[in-house]
Queue: 4 jobs
Job 1
Amino acid sequence: MSATVIDGKQVAARVQEEVAREVAQLKEEGLTPGLAVVLVGDDPASQVYTANKERTARELGMHSVLHKLPATASQDEVAELVQRLNRDPAIHGILVQSPLPEGLDIDAVVRLIDPLKDVDGFHPENVGRLWLGQDGLVPCTPAGVMRLLQEYGVDPKGKHAVIVGRSNIVGKPMAALLLRAHATVTVCHSRTVDLKETCRRADILVAAVGKLQMITGEYIKPGAVVIDVGINPVPGYKRRIRGDVDFDSAAEVASLITPVPGGVGPMTIAMLMANTVKAARLQCGR
Ligand code: NDP
């Protein structure tokens, strides 16, 4: 292996230390940042994610609440909860865990969240702000990728960044952030022809596809920086996860690479915590 492995756990721990320090300072000034996590239904993965988010916020000194609604909750019930949290002065960040149970419209719920409390950065106002280059709340996973690049001294300016995946939660905001950082950006998706050749032109390759180990060393330009956002179960194993990148063959070619687990994943929750503090500051004019 020739690539340096990016240690997402270490960087995430640093971000969380920064957040804990900021929270302590804000509390001295009489402001306790508050996060409300909303879980609808009993999806096992969502239960783990929401419990982690609620616990991490509490551990960093924030006010933290987990609201659980049954899978049978109606759209109106979810909406009422969000609107109540919008009005709650102790809550600065609201996160509604997706996916919602069938029949519920996540986009409609997100549109109800006060944009200043939208710590996932999914509200159309925050999406617009991101593309307009205005300050706002930025989706956590792509924000985490930018922090990893920064920590490892990768300046996207003038580089060709290729993103595989165009989802609203990863691919598109990732493209906006890399563009803002002056990269030349190509976004690939399931209808892209010549995917391998396009990826091979990337100085920075971000894989956010959801296909186990699809991106092999053959997709990578020698010396490229490879960021693997994918989280995929490995068939035949109960708890094992791997990325969209075939780590072993990619690490032979890349200069820097994120592992899965231990790369981008830990950054997502750390950036959520940072967003909650930012949201508290925005709402209180600090
Ligand atoms: P989506 O399923 O929403 O999007 C996947 C994207 O990949 C789509 O744009 C799709 O194209 C594209 N795609 C699918 N197949 C191919 C293919 N064969 N060739 C090229 N492009 C393809 O996924 P998400 O963006 O939500 O998530 C992507 C991955 O990242 C998942 O593994 C997810 O678990 C993980 N993830 C990890 C996070 C973390 O914290 N580390 C946070 C969020 C997600 P099209 O648009 O044409 O359908």
Note: The chain has ten helices and eleven strands.
Job 2
Amino acid sequence: MAECAVLNTGASMPLVGLDTGSNGALPLDQRKAVISAAVEVGYRHFDTAKIYNSEGFLGEALKEAMEAGLVKREDLFVTSKLWCTDAYPDRVLPALRNSLSALQLDYLDLYLIHWPIRLKEGADRRPKPDELMALDLQGTWRALEACVKQGLVRAIGVSNFSSKKIMELLEFAEIPPAVNQVEMHPQWQQRLLRETCKKANVHVCAWSPLGAPLMSWGTPEILNNPIIKDIASKHGKSPAQVVLRWGLDNGVSVIPKSFNKKRMVENLDVFGWHLTDEDHQRISGIEQKKNFDGSFICSQVSGPYKSPEDLWDGEFGL
Ligand code: A2P
């Protein structure tokens, strides 16, 4: 049984999951094979989103694994996300049904609002300024709550929300958000957000917990950081394991991406030990730098956010 966080719904969510967000470049059979390998080595928590184009092959691979008796539906934890062009109250249910159909599932374990913004229909991944609109948070949340009541999703939450936005949501939520999924690693420690979410009983899940070393917007600096490397050699672990353990020690779950079976195993093998207080102190001194800060939905010309600072309500680095 995987080590789990207990959500405010009472459900268990495995603390290490596999983010399927960036393997679109692989041929389809290889993408499916990545998921099958992950099930085989013990992953039970899978993260996807409409915008990742991974729901289809993830669903195929999970269906095959269930049919082969490798895993039962109740042992899996599957998250998907509402893309911003569907963040309209009347589009939530159809969008969720499309995700369920692509995933070949009857229900999701968790459904998240992907970003705190609404995009005009037809907008692509790089929206134009006139396609950016403020999110109708209350209307969209009510529609998500209705999906829970219909049994189509077990828990609902948000992604890329600042503390301020979490507090706004909590003011009217009948079903409080179970999770806030944000980029978090030693170069973006999200201290204020973690504190706020802890008090509000909202679990934080860290995406790109390794800092996305190979992505154009990411950085290899975290895994190459001398402090991380030193702590790793002291514990006889890899830098990635130290960075993941740092997240877990801070009470968050982590969803690293990997296409590689050896690294998948390495990323799951982060239990049964802890970083010391001194390790934590050293990591807390690492300089904070934004990575994927959401600038794709910020515009000086129009839309709700002029800059990433605006999007994050001035909380970056806090
Ligand atoms: P690969 O698929 O070749 O394993 P993040 O989850 O922070 O976005 O980072 C994902 C990236 O980190 C992927 O490019 C992945 O490459 C790489 N990666 C995943 N696990 C490890 C690891 N244990 N050590 C080094 N790099 C890793």
Note: Residues 19, 208-214, 223, 238, 240, 256-260, 263, 266-267 surround adenosine-2'-5'-diphosphate (CB under 6 Å).
Job 3
Amino acid sequence: MKKAISILAAAALVCSCAQDRNQILKVYNWSDYIDETVIDEFEDWYEEQTGEPVEVIYQTFDVNETMLSKIEKGKEDYDVVCPSDYIIERMLASDLLLPIDRDFGDTPNYIDDNLSPYIRSCFDKMEGGSKNANDYAVGYMWGTTGILYNAKYVTDEEASSWDILRNPKFADKIFIKDSARDVFSQIIIFLRQDDLKSGKVTLDELMHDSSQEALDAVENYMKQVKPLVAGWEADFGKDQMTQERGWVSLNWSGDGVWAIEEAEEMGVELRYALPKEGFTVWFDGWVIPKYAKNTKAAKYWINFMSRPDIVIRNVDVTGYVSVSGASEVLEAFTDDSYEPLDLSYFFGPQADSVCADPVLYPDRADIERSTQEHDWGARTPDLVAMWGRVKGENASASTGIVIGVVLAAALAFAVYKRLNNRRGSKKRRK
Ligand code: SPD
């Protein structure tokens, strides 16, 4: 499917050369992050609302850093992209974003009509200097980072702590998100759990701690985890879990929801836990980069993505949860087969006892153990370097094995050839 989208995007790029740029909308989003049928619908809806045609060129990325580099270094003219919280902060600080104008004429403003109060307050906490993130970014999906696990091999108790990642019982069965920032945050929370309990440090302070000491501590921990890791992944981990190649995965809740549902159909029981030491919540939001060429269609795209029926379809297909606090969304995801949860923080006071999937919508008590990540500014390259060392050594170990096997095979072949030649020449000499 991804390949098909890329081919379509490339074809669209070629055809679009002759087209007016005002009739093209270049969207850059995470992979597996939309119900693709809504893309065509947006084109029709935009024409209905504005009387102008538009063609969407839709491209995807797997990690924030790829997207950021295309815009920051490549100055690519994407009209609307979908970074995570700490990258939004970074883009704000680097003056890479345009404010999102909310004038939609007669078209309803779905963005502000439905935004959850929780999301608004989390965006208020984003650090963008003098800029408020709510003016430059509109939330799309949000979720938690936790442990997805196979209930046949892993106990609930084991999955209740981040320490599971260095349990030798799960050697070669662990998948880790290839996201330095997300992994760092969970591990530092785990390593500083005593200081958190005693009140010596807060979760928020930990998210700002980019000291060498913190980096070294996480690197040291990850070096214990690394020999047990079956793969670092951006997207394929969920499939590895449903097929039982992985038993434990540091993952995002949306991948968790998707994998739990898929696995159920295959008779595999996956569960998702939010470790007792604490964890992070994350937010991905639509922004309009300063190199955008069609800001009008970009803001209509963002508005369309906030329309409750579109929200529900995107959540259904991806497993990720929308930032929308609309009553239609609450109703769509209320499900009596679950225990009641306190979701008043998200949907408002009336939602203090709602039966819903706790992986999609964590209970207030869980949210109280969480925090949000922040940009590290000039310290980011040190984080990236640490991550490279952690994964690189892993790569070099496996690369070493492959090289060893290839060399041994080459040597064996050379010996065989030499012996054969000797036999051949002996024969000829006879
Ligand atoms: N396949 C789409 C995944 C998008 C999840 N974003 C999570 C970001 C966490 N920093």
Note: The longest helix spans residues 380-429.
Job 4
Amino acid sequence: MNIRVRLTLLFALLVASIMLVFSFSVYYLYNQYREQEFRKRLRDKALTTVRLFEDVGGITEELLHDISRNDLTTMYKEEITVYDAHNQVVYDSGEEPYHINANFLNQVRQGKDVSLREGDKEIVGVRYIDQKKQVLVVVAYAIDKYGISILERLRTILITGWAVSLLMVVLAGWLFSSDALRPVSDIIEQVKNISARNIHERLKIGRQNDELAQLAATFNDLLSRLEDAFSSQKSFVSHASHELRTPLAIMMGQLEVSLFQKRTIDEYQETIKETIEEVKKMRDLVNGLLELARLNDEVSQNHFSELRVDDLLWQTRDILIHHCPDYDVQIKFEEFPEEEALLQIKGDSALLQTAFLNLMENGCKYSPDHHVSLTLRAQEDHIRISFSDRGVGISDTDLPHIFEPFYRANSTQYVKGYGVGLALTRRIIELHNGRIWVFSQMGLGSQFVVTIPF
Ligand code: ADP
């Protein structure tokens, strides 16, 4: 069942129920009013008749017919019966006295206002004390033909009115819901036409600032984010292809040149060495990319183990110095914590080593003195490590981008690199619920700060 049908049905059901309650109330209240009025008239008639009966000392049939003929208040099938203290009929206006049970008569005699309904007949009982202090009970009954016919008419009007309004409500609900849902249908139509090819297109936002306009705006925000992700994905692929193509082109060139004519063994060896250098570069790049791709997929923190950060930093330093003996890495504590537990974090040692290695290597790589100094500090709920160098620094225009994959500052193009290391480092730190940020000044040096919670 679609929303339009559901809304219409709900709307119709609601209005129909309200109208039903209203119609029932009108019918019920009118019926009560009619009954009360009719019984009041019956009581008045009963009293008038019994007074007359007392005044004339008995009513003859002729007199009664005379009264009935001239009395405009005579009711349909009216009959009045007067009972004495022994429940004996002393007067009856009809041919056959109406037999009412003794209980009814006794209740009236005690002064209660008793009335009842039997079929169409309304019956009332009235107590009357005559001049001889005799307690008489007058029972009057009649059919409220006029009131009942009005009631029936009212019922027909209410039922017809209810049915007709129900039809109108269904129709109005259908039109109303279609109007209310038109923006939704519009959004569906527009969204259907958006695909990867035209992801730059946006939904039209209505003039009103209602929920549907907000939905369209939210969807447009999502499209913008997707477009950004798409274009960074595209540029990632083109950057990666470019970075891989360069060493391949160099290798092709070197191999083709060496094949061009016969070379000495030394020359071949030289070519092979150069080719191996290029292959190594490719391997490093491919490894970095694979790691980045792996970390962008959800990596579970389940296998994290307890690590001593200072040990990890010393091991990383040794690996770096082993590969680049002219690099100098200095590690110092701002204040050695009293408890060793304050140097322990939960993490993946291989990943953290990659991150620290990148930061140490960058510090040395981009400094003429190839020196980086690390400061370790255990704070309330995290460990803070800063990597400071007195290198070339990073310009303000480059700073916001250096964590993007493949981004390399112009001022550092002369140094070997692919621009993948910092993207990888940031992802690793985020995976450990940590943060990384950088301060730098051109020509003075840079400071990368990493915090990792315990
Ligand atoms: P790579 O070092 O391979 O180029 P990174 O992702 O590690 O890739 O770094 C991205 C860019 O950030 C570098 O190309 C460089 O321009 C800049 N950068 C990173 N670390 C430093 C640093 N310590 N000093 C100066 N520039 C840096």
Note: The chain has three domains: 3-152, 211-296, 305-453.
